Amino acid sequence: MPGCCLAVLSPPAFEPGAERAWVTHGPAFGKTSPNHNGGGWSSWQTAWLMGQLATVDRDRLLARGRFLEGVTLGWNVVGIIVLAVAAIAARSVALAGFGLDSLIEIGASSVVLWELADVAADRQRRAMRLIGAAFVALAVYLVVQSTLVLVAGYHARPSSLGIAWTAVTAAVMFALAAGKAKTGTALDNPVLRTEGRVTMIDGLLGAAVLIGLVLNAAFGWWWADPAAGYVLVYYGIREAHEALTY
Question: Mean pLDDT over residues 116-120, rounded?
Fold first, then answer.
């Protein structure tokens, strides 16, 4: 019996080079290849095959989404350690704050990994609420950090380690954000797309911190970093509203 079932569901035999013609012009259109030796698949067998291919493609996209979130999670775990060392050495509030941002990103990535394990609608809604809360935390952090640095007139020491890490991190976050946006769109998964925007903000913040560190080291413009932080507050609040009202 198993052999009989496999025979029914297996595609018909082809002469060499006929497979592409069969896929393009065969059962999907109720026809068979001109090189085919027998009858073509029935419509339900074609539908079954298309369903199997769609399932395989979705599983591949889910695996890619989990991989992107895993890389984000691992990068930010390492980043907290690197940024802590750099912040202490340079006595830099900006680097310390960027470390806090990495902690927020870890939380957001963990939420998406949890959601991708079961993409039920209720879980998606809860995941969006949690990501919205991460955006709120990020916006609050940016306002508090930038204001404290500007009011205190805090001058940090130059940090080569901080400059190198923020430069690489910004590039990595932009690449990950693009991958999440593409994969989330293909999956029609709003949680992955929204968290991709969290990653984009992380990259923008890294670039802002980098600019501030470079300007401080080169020209003594200590206020450049906190000023750039304010620019990102509006974007963070807008994304928080979208996620929380999903």
Answer: 68
Domains by residue range for the chain, with CATH: 2-41 (no CATH), 60-244 (1.20.1510)
Nearest to 49 by CA among 75, 22, 17: 22
Are the C-beta atoms of 111 and 130 separated by less than 8 Å? yes
pLDDT top residue among 73 and 30: 73
Per DSSP, the residues of the chain read -HHHHHHHHSPPP--TT-HHHHHHHSGGGT---TT-SS----HHHHHHHHHHHHHHHHHHHHHHHHHHHHHHHHHHHHHHHHHHHHHHHHT-HHHHHHHHHHHHHHHHHHHHHHHHT---HHHHHHHHHHHHHHHHHHHHHHHHHHHHHHHHT--PPP-HHHHHHHHHHHHHHHHHHHHHHHHHHHHT-HHHHHHHHHHHHHHHHHHHHHHHHHHHHHH--TTHHHHHHHHHHHHHHHHHHHHHT-
Distance CA 184, CA 109 (A): 14
pLDDT score for 98: 86
Q: Which residue bears the tokens 């928080």?
A: 240
Residues 6 or more apart whose CB falls under 8 angstroms from that of 235 comprise: 201, 204
